[in-house]
Structures are given as C-alpha cells and as structure tokens.
Amino acid sequence: MFSQLRSLWEVLRHTFIKHDTVEYPEQKPALFPRYRGRIILTRDPDGEERCVACNLCAVACPVDCIALQKTEDEHGRWYPEFFRINFSRCIMCGFCEEACPTNAIQLTPDFEMCEYDRQNMVYEKQHLLIDGTGKYHDYNFYRVAGMTIGNKAKGQAENEYPPVNVKTLLP
Amino acid sequence: MARIEIDGQSYDVQDGDNLLSSCLSLGLDLPYFCWHPAMGSAGACRQCAIIQYKDAEDQRGRLVMACMTPVKEAMRISIDAEQARQFRSDNIELLMTNHPHDCPVCEEGGECHLQDMTVMTGHTFRRYRGRKRTHNNQNLGPFINHEMNRCIACYRCVRFYDEYAGGKDLQVLGMHNNVYFGRFEDGALENEFSGNLVEVCPTGVFTDKTFSARYTRKWDLQTAPSICIHCSLGCNTAPGERYGELRRIINRYHGEINGYFLCDRGRFGYGFVNSQKRIVMPGIKGQTETTAEIAENHFRNLLKYAKSVIGIGSPRASLEANFALRSLVGEANFFLGLEDAEHTLLNAIVEILFNGGIRSPSLRETEQADAVLIMGEDVTHSAPRLALSLRQAVRNASFDMAHKMHIPLWQDAAIRQLGPIRSPLFIASICSTRLDDVATGTYQGSPDDIARFGFAIAHCLDESAAEPVDLSEDEKSLARSIAKALKQAQRPLIVSGTSCLSVAVIQAAYNVAKALPAQDKQLTFTLPECNSLGLAIMNGRPLQQAFDSINDGLADTVVILENDLYRRASHQSVDGFLEKAAHVVVIDNLENQTVGRAELVLPAATFAESEGTLVNNEGRAQRYFPVYPAADPIRGSWQWLTRLENSQWRHHHALTAACASAFPYLAAIVHAAPQTDNIIKGSKIPRQPHRYSGRTAMHANIKVSEPGQPQDMETPFAFSMEGAMAHVQPALLPVIWAPGWNSNQAINKFQQETGGHLRDGDAGARLIKPSGSHLPWFGHIPPAFEPEPGLWRIMSLPHIFGSEELSLQSTPLAERLPDLCVLLNPQDAESLGVDPGDPIEICDPARNFLLKFPVNIEKTLPRGLLGITAGRPEFQPLKFLDQVTLNKANPEQQPNSEAPL
Amino acid sequence: MNAGLGDAADIIGILVSTISVSALLIWVERRLLAVWQDRLGPNRVGPLGLMQVAADMIKMFFKEDWIPPFSDKPVFVLAPTIVFITMLTGFAVIPFAPGVGIIDFNFGLLYFLALSSLSVYSIVLAGYASNNKYSLLGGLRAAAQTVSYEVFMGISIMGVVMLSGTFNLREIVEAQRDGWFILPQFFGFIIFLIAVIAESRRAPLDLPEAEQELIGGFHTEYSGMKFGMFFVGEYLAITLSSALVVTLFFGGWLGPWLPPLLWFCLKTTIGILLFILLRGALPRPRYDQLMTFGWKVLLPAGLLNLLVTGAVVLSLHS
After folding, report:
1. Which of B495, B824, C87, C204 is 20 to 30 A from B453 (CA-CA)?
2. A134: helix, coil or strand?
3. C-beta atoms of B697 and A118 within 8 A
4. How much is the ipTM here?
5. What is the pLDDT of residues B161-209, one digit of tens each?
6. Do at least 3 CB pairs under 8 Å connect C with B?
C-alpha cells in the first residue's frame, strides 16, 4: 500500500523534472564518432577498396540485409562484385562492423536517411563506398595477409620471410 | 567388440580399430588432421593426442596419438585430461605459426577443418609475433587453386593423390619446416581425381578454382541431395546454388557408392547448368514472343491434331520423364533414343544383370574384390570413380598379408612398406589404360579379339564354355594364367561395358563370370550414361524404328526428350527423319543440333532444378532433388509432359509410383529416396543452412519487398532455411554440418562408424536381386580381327573430359580436353608416312573426303584401328562409319578447317 | 427542482462541453503521461500540440470502418454506442452548480449506479460480437470485474447517503456545507475511487483490454469511429467519475470566493488528473489479484465502513 502511494508520489514529482527528450530536428543531438548510423564501405590507406568480400558481415547480420558477391581482379585481390545493403531492413546493430576482419564496413553518426520510396533505401556499392579510411586510419588487410595481390608478392607482407626455394639442396 | 573407458565412461568399440576412429565413431570430438577414414593413419600431425593409462590405478598415464594406438580390451584413456588438452592446444599453436592471416580471403573459410580444429582446441589468440615462412604458389590447372602458405604439412594431399589415386605429379618437395606440396613445375594436375584434394586438404591449400571464380561461403549455398549425371555410376553429390546459379559440386557421402571421393568430371562438369547455351525460353518456329502458356497450348494442339505421335526417350533423362513420355505417346510409340548398337548392348546387359544370377556389385563391394578382370574398358575414362575403387581393390593382397602379420589395416605406412604386393588385376582393352600401372597383366586387341580372349579365359575356367579357335600361343598362356588367378580368388570381379560397342565382349564377360567357381563372384558393366540402365529396363523400341515409322508415314509428330539425335545416328538419317516429321517437339536444356531443327522447343530443367530417379550401372535406383527452383518458364521435363495429360499425375511421387507399377523390374524405385514420414509433420527439410545470409537483400535491387519463398510441392525439401533438421536421415541431409564441424568432415557424425554406412542407411534401392537362374553359355564367338590393307576400323575411345555430352559444355573441363587428334598404331603411321602431329585426311571407303585431323601415335593400339575420342562433336561424322581410308594430307593446309564444330 | 434546470441551453452546453472535455483529455492524458515520463508528448500539431485532438479525430473518421466478416454484425455495431450513450446520459444528474444542470432527480445517485451497470453491456456485447477469443476473454473479464466492483461501489457511497440522508445529488452537495464528506467518509472515498476505476476499466484496472495479454481485449476488432466511441467513452467515464467523486466527497460546487461552477470544474479537473496519475504510476494487477482484492478486502472494508458510519449516525441522532 505504501509502495503504491510512494510510486504515485515519485511519478508526480516528475512534473518538475526536466524532460530528456530532444526537440529533433530543431535541436540536433550530439552524436559520437562511434554512433551506429548509416553504414559505409571504406578504403585502405593506399586508396584501394578494403572490402575483401569475405561474407562475414552478411552472416553476422541478424536481419540478413547484406548481400554481396566475391570477385577478384587480375592479380588475385578479392573484392565485392556487388555489395548491397537493404537499409529498410537494417537495424543499425553494428554486428557487421564487429565482424569485419578488414575494417571495411563501418557505421557512421549519420542516421538521417529517410525516403518516401522504400526502394531508395537499397544501397549498392557505389552508394556505400567512400574515399577515405573512416574511423581506422592505418589498417591495410592485404599488408598482413599472405595472399598475393598486385603490388605485393609472396614474402612481402608484414612479418614474412622471402619465399622458400624448395629446390635447393641446402638445409 | 572391446569395452574401453574414456574419461570414466564405458564404451563398446570395434576391436582392432584405432582409438581416433573409435572416438569419432562414438561421436566424441577429438581433433585430427592427417588421419582420413579412407586412407588410414599416418601419425604425422600429432593433433589427436590423448592420455592412455596403464591400468585402473594409474593416475598419470602417458601421452599417445589416438590414431596410432589400437583399441585394446579394458583400456583406459582420457581425451579431456589437462595434459592432453594442453598438448593439442600447443600443437595447433605451433602448426599455426606460419599460417597466413588469410581466412577472410580463403575459399576454405567457413568449411575449414583447420578452423574447426583450432577452435576445438581452444587456440583463439596468436602469440607468435615472429616472421612467417612463405612459399610461392603454382598454377595447377583449371580445377585446383594452390595457396601453399596455408599448409600445415599433414601429408594428406600426397597420400591421397599419389598413394590412393595413383597420381604421379604431386610431390613433397623441400624439407623440415619448408616442405612443399606441389608439382615439380607449374601445370595441370594430371590425375582424374585431383578435385578430391579440395576436400582432402584440411585447410585452404587446395581449393576449387571453378568455385572460387563464383565464390560463396558454404553457409550461403542452397543445397539438396543430388546424383551425378556424368556417368553411369550414380555417385552422390551435393551441388550448391547461390543467386540462381549453380556454384559448385562437392561429394555427398554414400557408404555403398562413392564414399568420400568423386572424379573430376563429376565435380567440375556442372558448368553446363549455367552455360550460355541453356534454353531459357520456349521457342516456336516462326514466332518471336512465346510464354510457357503459349508453348504449352501449342504442344497440346500439336498432340491433338497429330495423326500419330511418337516419343523418343533419353538415357540422360529421369525414369519419370521417360515414363511420362511413354504414357503420353503410348507404349507402341515409345522409342528409347539410343544408338542402335548401344540399344542391343544395353538389352544384353539388362538380360545378364537380371537373369544371369551373378551379383552386380556396388563400388564398395568392388573394392573388396581380390581379383579383377576388366574386359574392353578403360575404366578411368568410362566410369572414373570405379577406377579409383579398383585401384584400392588391388591392395587387398597386401591387406591380407598385413592381416597375417598382425598389422592393423589402418597402419597405412606399414602396409605400404610391405612392398608391391598386389591382388591380380587384368586388363583387356583396345589400347593402354590409366590402370595399367597397377595391372598384373594387360592385353590389347580389337573388340573382337578382346571377346575371343574372354571366351578363352572362360573356357580355361570351365571346359563346357565355348572355346575360340586359332588363338595364338601367347594369348592362350595369358588366358590360362588369368584363369588361374581368377580361380583362386574368393571374391573375383569381372568388369566390362559398352565402350567397345561389342555384344561379344559382354557375352564373353558373362561367360567368364559364369565359369568362376567362387561364391562371391561379381560382374559389373559400365554404361554410357546416367540412366542408361533405367531406360533399357523400360524396354522401348530402337531408334531406327522411329525413323522408319516417320519415313513410312505411320506417324507425323515426334516428341524428343532431352536427346540430341545427332549423337545417336548418322547425320543423314537424322536429317531425313526430322525433315519428314511434320512436327518436331524437343524438350531439352541445352542448345544442340536437334533443338535447332525443332518446331517447338520446351526449356527443360537440369538435374539441379528438377527431381527424378536414375538407375545406375549397379541397378540401384537413386533420387535427385532440385537444388533451386527452375527459373520460369523452365520446367522439369516430366512437368512439361504431365501437364498435358489431364492431370493424371499432379505430383512427382504419383508419377514415380505409376512408373514403378508399370514395370516389375522398377517396382522398388518408390524407395529410391528415404521415407520422410518421421519428419515432424508439416515441416520440411531446409535446403539452406541455418546461417544463410542476405535473405532480405539479395533481391532488393529488383524490388525492395521480399518475394515469398518458392514453394516445393514435389519433394520433402523447402527452398528456405525453415524446417526441421533433427530427425532427418543422414542420406537426405542437404548440408553436412554438426556443431563445431563446419567442413565436410562432419560426416563422421552421421555415419554408423567412421568410413561406414550412413546412419539409417544409405540412399537408393537396388532393383536387382543377386538371385536368378543362370543363363546358358554364350557361344557366338566372333572371328579374329584382321586388318584390311588400306582400311581402318573406327574405335571410339572414351575420355573422362571429352566424351560426355553435358560436361563438354563446362568451361573448365574444356581446358582439359584431350588433343584433337586421331590415334594410330606406329606401324600404320609408318606405312602412311605420317609423323606425330601431321594432319591426315580421313575418307570413307568410297574415298570421299570427310575430315582432316592431326595424328598421334599410340603404341598399344592394335594395327588396323583408328582411335578417336568418343562423343566428341568434332568426330561425329566418323562415328557411324565402320571403316575409313586414310591419306597423308598436305601439311600446308590448315588442319581440320572443314571440321564442323 | 430548481428553476432554469434542464433548458435547451443547459442541455446543449453540457453536452458540448463534456464531449469536448473528453476529447481534449486525449491530448491532456498523453501530455501528462509524457511529462511524468520525462518526455514531451504530442507538441507538433497546433500550439502546444492542442490540435492533436482534431488530427486524431480526423484520422478516426477517415479510417476504414471495418466490420469483420465473422462477427455478429448488428451487435457489433450496437455495442460501442451503448457505452457512449450511457456515459453521456450519466451527466444528466451531475450538479454542476446551483441552477446549472440538466435534471434533478431525487434518486440521482441510484440513476448513476444504474447507468454505470448498463455500460458493461457494451463491453460484454463487443467481446461477444467480435467472435474472437481475445475479445471474448476481454468481455468476460469486464463482466466479472464490473459486476463485482459495482457491489462495493454501491456500498461505499451508502455512507454518504446516510450522512446526508438523501439520494439527491444536489442535496448531498448542500449537506457538505459544514464539511466535505471526504473527512468522515475517507474509507468510503478510497473504496469508491477504486471501484469507479474498475467500473470505467481504466489503468491500472484495465484488465478487459490489457494490451500486453489480450491485444486489445474487447475492442480488438474495432476500428474507425466505432473504436472512437469506446475511446471517447472511456474519457467520458473518467470525467463523469471525477464529477461524481467531487459531488459526493469534495463538496461539489462549494467553495469560497470563486463562482460555484468554476469550483466544480476545478475540483473535477483535479479528479481527472488523479485518474491519469494513477494510470501513469501503478502497475496492472493480475486478474485473480483483482478479484481477491475486491471480495476479500474491499467488501469487508466497505461493510465495516457502513457499519461504523451507521453506528455514528445513530449515536449522533439519538
């Protein structure tokens, strides 16, 4: 009984407490760099696409709104042939960003992406790919990975010995 | 049975097995790399360490490798002991020191045994910060990608490739930390089973190049149980689809047939499904725009107003489609659509298989054979997976020896060190074969000579069998020695087939098998196509009679089911036939010459988009299921044919049942797929893995509202990830997956014991009972072949990549086609004055010029024979000629410029 | 009867003002709940969001007026009108101020009790006619809840009747010139308040509609203006209940300085706010708790209150 009265009082007390709601859009809330908004694809410090089409973002996505297809350039570098995010399904959970092994997919503090036509919420690679590195400036997956790409042969990645000559007789 | 204690729990396990295999059979998780159920133990990777205790009191125990430790009664072991766990974790950490940071860009990722085992041991963080050893990769041809950095040196690849499959060109190079698995120099892997490296390799060193080109993770592939359609063996496959495109084929374990391995044709021959030559729209001659409905009405009208309709079936179409056609046109108007010679052969084979009283073995049974005689077949090319089994059968003598010496059969290296002890394998063939390297004796001759040789062996075994006259002394003594070896065998196996196009060879093979004294004798035939036997059982009329009935005006409309008649009969006769027929309806999936002549073309679904039952060479009926729905207006052949019949058969199972009741021999086909009654009511089996991604985005570029999932009304499978997996028989599982086991090696969770049969049984129903009365001796012995001067007999020699109609349309296989040339005996070549590579003009006996091809010399080809690649379109004009004459061609001219492609 | 009561001006004035107050309550309630939850509430349509009411009404009017094909159509249509009409007619006996009102019955209080019992038919019929298990459950709950709480409601106000010696509401107000009945009848007031909440099916005693368990209870299948009648009916019930509480316990129009009508309106407004606060603060009890509380606590307490009041009144008179 007392607790009921107390909660009545507690609730009534809120009449004189400042409200938390922000009067958006007149008043813009302060968003932090790690805010989870619109998804982008970034480039590595060399200006190449970071995405290697590994499909981990797609499989991590709880609403399955990411679809992509792997292809590779003439030097064997993997990249997505298409990369599609259906933002009308996206719940901005950020799992894709956490799953991404190359820091390619990142969420940004932009959430103002309403459309009158739902079809416009489907973003293809050209809509997602930006020219910069996003939040992570230095990481370049292919400098670490063992795969050969255009300007990096075997043994030229970080922490690699030159390739073994298997035909040598020396121990 | 032995009772052992693992971590305090008592288990009954198979005596004589190794501990690793036993633990896996019990469903326990124990990481391993180098052990493979088909190849035994090597003890190379040190990953399956466990603690073995001396007795019940022993608390400390000692570390042993489970794969190298035999099961002993009352032994006590521990998988979970801290020392064992620590050892396994340390071991994998060491294996991983040089492993590159590649998983996101590795085709193995997501179905990688190394990933699974790493997670299983708990090694989740790399402490090693030093530099990594690297290797250069090789180009291993169109099938296999090479990424040597990822290697953990388990030696599985060479053990499979060299020791199991008999390859010569994949070796271990280098030493200690630098060992390298590759060829001496770049180049395509020569062995016909190289594709299995993809599954044998526990990590991403060898990956599927054709798959990588259109890569998708395993969890994104829509899969259904399927049957390989590229030869008559009926290997089980698991094709995977993504975005409406068939992406790859991997092995689907079948305890009786293919086991763990497929041939390269089966694995890489799927490209035709995505080919540009696919018929995707119905076509009516003279009309540009057609829909499925217009085409269907046109078809209906044609049938309605036709004087009489004949139907031509196909050995590459399912039983149901053939049966639907047969019902549509009537029994009297149904023709099998086989080459006439082949028709006779298949009839003879059906007669022998069903009434000969000799068991036709499964591939697993052929592996048990302790003496093998191959008559007239180059098995590697006509039924490749059988060759791999026969290669294992040859090892039975060394297994027997090992048994005597108390060496367990899984001690692979020990058994191989016993030396080249081989079970007898004799090969009588037209020219050298890919199995000659393990053969005890070989014989080369024309088909007639092979038949005579077979009759001679039969006579040596049993005096009452007919005896050929005028055999040379050499032939006689070889026949005697073969007969002697076969006589001593407990489980002798005779292999023959249709490659020679000779009834005499088949009859001789039967005579030999009949003459064998052993109880467990077996006789198997390789057949040309995936449903040749099923079609032959249907007992239709020969193709020539179809031509006659049109030419005689008995019928005016013809329905051709998935059959390119130009491959079945000479160009002139097919031309005449199609010209004379007032209306030609073709149901097929790929553009071909016959399709080009049709008035109405109906687009048919391939094996990947439709369902059906096939009968393999063993007489086993197996069902394949659509992997993904056919894109409208493509339909399954059976659907085109049954839509017209006032819906007598709405559903596939009704059609199957009708087919089963129409033919007593086919009665069992209703059991070709496991019964699905015990699956939870109303819920289907999902074709998509539970982590299938992109569902709400894959079609969003077309329309943002997701389309409904396609409904599958015909099979127990759903085109979605919804449904029940818990109670599905392993034989029906689309995806082999178990928690913690993402690679195909998860199959051990679904087997009765590792390497054994699937739980709840393997799929398929054998139609042939081994009982039956023996047929009388065949006594029609052909005369010996005598080369006629100036005339050469055409010999169609099958080739794994060059002969099969559909796989020829697959791009990666095209790179491995045999050279476009004809084969000649060296003496013949000398008499013609041609050197290898010289072009030669081929003319018919009346000296009319036909074609020009370069010559290759084949030492083992008998004189008077001209070898061509069977089934290759370029050689089509030669196929139906008995004999040709040859001239040395003017080398300045461009070779084969006139050859129709 | 007072002169000037029940002329056309009164009737129209009271009808218009009660309906518009009820409509406005839609906005008031949403704003207040928002304030108490540190939010803003509807503030976009018109000044302070006042036109939200108009917007809601337009929306409600233009919504498809859908009658489910599986429903009992005549009853389905009839049900929402009952609650609306009974609540409106309930205002007839409310003594707004001396000379302001529609009718002055000697049995005014009984009239109110009768109408409030009638309104339950609306809910029961709606639940039955929707032909939907959730609606039916809602209807059943409403029937049981209303029937139970009617008993205590009647008992709780008997104390007031004893003290004033009349069922006439205006006389009850006049009887409070010496002191509001809230003091002698505090327990009666508490029981009456709870019972009136249960009768009007307001949160926290809104078990018949309980969105979380019954989707919407009796009005699950209703949309458009039929739903609107239930909706407005609820606010009418709040207004009516507050007016009655004020009349019975807080001295009606009585008060110094200000005109009587204003006093009445002020007190009623506070009553309404109390209703909204209760909704904003208290959780919904379980159904069995509700019934147990009614029969095992409120009924004895009400009877006790009646007994004591009777004893005191008797002793004072004798």
Report:
1. B824
2. coil
3. no
4. 0.89
5. 999 999 999 999 988 888 999 998 899 999 999 999 999 999 999 999 9
6. no
